[in-house]
Amino acid sequence: MSTFAAWRPIGHVLVEAGAISQDELELALAEQRRSGRRLGEILIDSGRITWLTLANAIAEQATDMEPAPAPEPDPAPMLSPAASIAPPPPPPLSHVPAPPVTVADDPPPSTDPTGRLETVEAMLKERQRAFLELVSVTERLRANVARLQQQLGERDAEIAKLRARPDAGVTAA
Question: What was the pLDDT predicted at 65?
């Protein structure tokens, strides 16, 4: 049973966004099958996308995942007491470090100190902009995770209420 109405693979999100072509996706998928590496890692390492492009695609993918409507509870007999034990909570999300920032259009080194200073300032401004955009994407992902955790808690509470109802017991045969 699927909890989400529309989950799109990250490769399709990148193609739809115009970040990569269908041919580039197929090449990266072939590399993924061969090497076992993650698709985003392959696309970043090959220079087809940046880590920020991948982060935006993941945020879009998470935003697209709208929960499907909850099914009506079945008034049929409930599970046995052994089956009513709640499953253990999922492990906490581990910290995933961001990949290093690289700017593809770095100009060649200059011998002019003023030109070098301007080049460094421009690079710093670009990295600052990319960092702020990444923070924005991260906040959107955190908000989605919090919303999904809240929905999960509400559904768990509803299941517990349904299991505790006196009229939901097993009928005698």
Answer: 62
- Cα 127 to Cα 48, 56, 107, 117, 150: the distances in Å are 19, 16, 15, 15, 34
**Number of structural domains found in the chain:** 1
**Each residue's pLDDT tens digit, 83-138:** 445 555 555 555 545 555 554 555 555 566 777 788 888 888 888 888 888 888 88
Q: List the domain range (segments joined by +) for residue 92.
A: 10-168
* 5 falls within a domain: no
- Determine how many CB atoms are found less than 10 A away from the CB of residue 172: 4
Amino acid, res. 66: E
What pTM does this model have?
Answer: 0.42
- Give long-range contacts, CB 8 A cutoff, 24+ apart: 43-52: 43/14, 44/99, 47/104, 48/19, 48/20, 48/24, 49/14, 49/19, 49/20, 50/102, 50/104, 51/98, 51/99, 51/101, 52/130, 52/133, 52/134, 52/137
**CB 45, CB 15: distance < 8 Å:** no
Task: Give Cβ neighbours of residue 116 (< 8 Å, ≥ 6 apart).
Answer: 109, 110
**Helix, strand, coil percentages in the chain from 3-state DSSP, rounded to 5:** 60, 0, 40
Q: Please check whether residue 44 lies inside any domain of the structure.
A: yes
Is 82 among the domain residues?
yes
Residue 4 lies inside a defined structural domain of this protein: no
